[in-house]
C-alpha cells in the first residue's frame, strides 16, 4: 500500500516506518530463524523473493506494512536504520467485498525486546492507524495455539475468541471497533504522533538527532 510510504508513527518506545528495500536484508535474516517461522506460520524465502515480497507489499492495495524501530536508538544518527529494527506490523485487508475487515500481524523479531510492552504499544498504534486512515471496523488475528504469549497479549488489549481449530492448531481472535475502544486508544496513545518519514530521515543523514527536530517541521 502506498498510503504510508512517507508516514512515520512515533510512539513512546518505538517508531513505525514504511517497509523499504533497505530493511530487507535484516528482515530476511530474521525469517531464517525456525522459531520465528513457527511463531508466525511463515515459509523461508530467498533474499530475492524477500525483495519481491517487499515490493509487492508496497504496491498491493490490500496490505499496509510498517517496520518497528527502537525509538531511542534511531534518534542517534550514528546507528544505521537497519540496526534499529526490532520487528514488523501489518494490516491485511482480507476481504475485497468488505474493506472494513482487517487481519493484524505483529512480530517483535528481536527476542531481547520482547516482554517490555512494545508488542502492546505497537498493536494499539496500528489499530489506531487502521481505524483512522484505512477505515477498519473489525480486526482479526490468527495465532498458533502454542503461542501463548501472543494470545495473552491480544486478549489483554480486548481481542476475544472468534474460533479455534484443533486441526489447524490455530485460534482466531477478533476486535470490533466501538466508542469505548476509540476512547481507550485516545487515552493510551496521547503521545502518538504522525510525522513525515523522509524529512526525519534527511535530518538524520545530516547527522542530527531526530528527537530534536521540532514536530511542526515534520
Ligand atoms: C507476541 C509478541 C508480539 C508480544 O509482544 P511483546 O512485546 O513481547 O509483549 P508485551 O511486552 O507488549 O506484553 C503484552 C502482554 O502479553 C503478555 N505477555 C508478554 N510476555 C509474556 C510471557 N513471556 N508469558 C506470558 N504472557 C506474556 C502479557 O499479558 C503482557 O501484558 P502485561 O505486561 O500487561 O502483563 C512478541 O512476543 C513476538 O513478536 N513474539 C515472536 C513472534 C510472534 O509470536 N508473533 C505473533 C504471531 S501471531
From TrEMBL:
Residues 14-160 form the N-acetyltransferase domain. It holds the Pfam family Acetyltransf_3. GO terms for molecular function: tubulin N-terminal-methionine acetyltransferase activity. It catalyses: N-terminal L-methionyl-[tubulin] + acetyl-CoA = N-terminal N(alpha)-acetyl-L-methionyl-[tubulin] + CoA + H(+). Gene3D superfamilies: 3.40.630.30. Its EC number is 2.3.1.308. Keywords: Acyltransferase, Transferase. Belongs to the acetyltransferase family. GNAT subfamily. N-acetyltransferase that mediates the acetylation of the N-terminal residues of alpha- and beta-tubulin. This is Alpha/beta-tubulin-N-acetyltransferase 9. The lineage of its organism: Eukaryota, Metazoa, Chordata, Craniata, Vertebrata. The gene is NAT9.
Amino acid at each position: 500500500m502506498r498510503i504510508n510510504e512517507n508516514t512515520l508513527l512515533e510512539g513512546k518506545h518505538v517508531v513505525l516506518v514504511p517497509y523499504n528495500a533497505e530493511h530487507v536484508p535484516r528482515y530476511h535474516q530474521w525469517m531464517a530463524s525456525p522459531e520465528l517461522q513457527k511463531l508466525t506460520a511463515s515459509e523461508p524465502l530467498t533474499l530475492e523473493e524477500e525483495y519481491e515480497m517487499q515490493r509487492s507489499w508496497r504496491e498491493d492495495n490490500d496490505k499496509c506494512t510498517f517496520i518497528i524501530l527502537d525509538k531511542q536508538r534511531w534518534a542517534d544518527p550514528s546507528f544505521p536504520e537497519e540496526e534499529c529494527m526490532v520487528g514488523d506490523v501489518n494490516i491485511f485487508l482480507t476481504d475485497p467485498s468488505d474493506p472494513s475487515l482487517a487481519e493484524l500481524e505483529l512480530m517483535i523479531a528481536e527476542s531481547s525486546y520482547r516482554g517490555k510492552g512494545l508488542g502492546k504499544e505497537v498493536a494499539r498504534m496500528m489499530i489506531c492507524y487502521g481505524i483512522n486512515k484505512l477505515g477498519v471496523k473489525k480486526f482479526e488475528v490468527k495465532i498458533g495455539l502454542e503461542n501463548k504469549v501472543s494470545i495473552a497479549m491480544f486478549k489483554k488489549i480486548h481481542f476475544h475468541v472468534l474460533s479455534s481449530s484443533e486441526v489447524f492448531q490455530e485460534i482466531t481472535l477478533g476486535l470490533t471497533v466501538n466508542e469505548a475502544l476509540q476512547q481507550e486508544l485516545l487515552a493510551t496513545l496521547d503521545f502518538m504522533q504522525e510525522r513525515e518519514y523522509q524529512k526525519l530521515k534527511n535530518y538524520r543523514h545530516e547527522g542530527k538527532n531526530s528527537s530534536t527536530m521540532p514536530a511542526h517541521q515534520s
